[in-house]
Amino acid sequence: MHQHLLHQPSCCTPLLMQIAAALQAEKLILMTDVPGVLRDKNDVATKYNSLNIHECRQLTDEGVIAGGMIPKVQCCIRCLSQGVTAAHIIDGRSRHSVLMELLTNEGVGTMITG
Fold this sequence. Notes:
Distance between the termini: 17 Å
């Protein structure tokens, strides 16, 4: 499997998913203006470090994942279904956010896996 890294500043497109699948990308990183999936959208301390697809669906049903976070999470789930191993939602405004997400145990965003 290739270890390509795709960066996407906005929500997922069918083309992005096709590229990720064609490259057999190991990770997809969505650089956004939010720190990741939050239990309470007004409290950064409630950020989930990692979620799986089932948890994402449950949080969506509960209304925790709502508004603009829905298309971000749906993009991650679709990319996972195309063979991407992990998808990350991170705050692209934060300095070194990609390195921090990939090279530290706790990361800075939310990692979604199958």
